């Protein structure tokens, strides 16, 4: 019975760790996306960092990524930035991998 309980606790810990890691990767990805969009909008420095932080907050509006997409797409369209919807979605996907890699390197360092 003890080994079953130990295994159950290990599975719960793994699930919690994976959920936390997924949350961190997503938050990092959204922040990186915010910086990418800010660059396209001509926003730099502290204002770019603030835009990226605000975008992370937008991500809590609803499950999934459509809330983030709608926000950045509206901002890009409002400034008449010449990027396609596909470019934004591709960048969102690419930055997921970048965020995961950054967090993995960060964890390896210490």
Characterization of this structure:
- It is a single chain.
- With 110 residues, this protein is mainly α.
- The protein has one domain (26-109): Domain of unknown function DUF1476 (Major Prion Protein, Orthogonal Bundle), CATH 1.10.790.20.
- It is built from 4 helices and no strands.
- The chain has helices spanning 2-41, 45-58, 66-78, 85-109.
- Helix 1 (2-41) runs parallel beside helix 3 (66-78).
- The longest helix has 40 residues, at 2-41.
- The relative contact order is 0.12.
Number of domains: 1
- On the 0 to 100 scale, the average pLDDT is 89
**Cα shape:** elongated
CATH class category: Mainly Alpha
Q: Give the second-level CATH assignment, the architecture.
A: Orthogonal Bundle
CATH topology: Major Prion Protein
Estimated share of beta-strand residues: under 5%
The SSE order reads HHHH
Q: How is the quaternary structure best described?
A: single chain
Terminus-to-terminus distance: 36 Å
Top keywords for this entry?
single chain, 110 residues, mainly alpha, Major Prion Protein, 0% strand, elongated
Please outline the helices and strands:
Elements: H1 2-41, H2 45-58, H3 66-78, H4 85-109
Helix pairs in contact: 1-2, 1-3, 1-4
Give a summary of the structure in a few sentences.
The chain is mostly helical and 110 residues long. The chain has four helices and no strands. The protein has one domain: Major Prion Protein (Orthogonal Bundle).
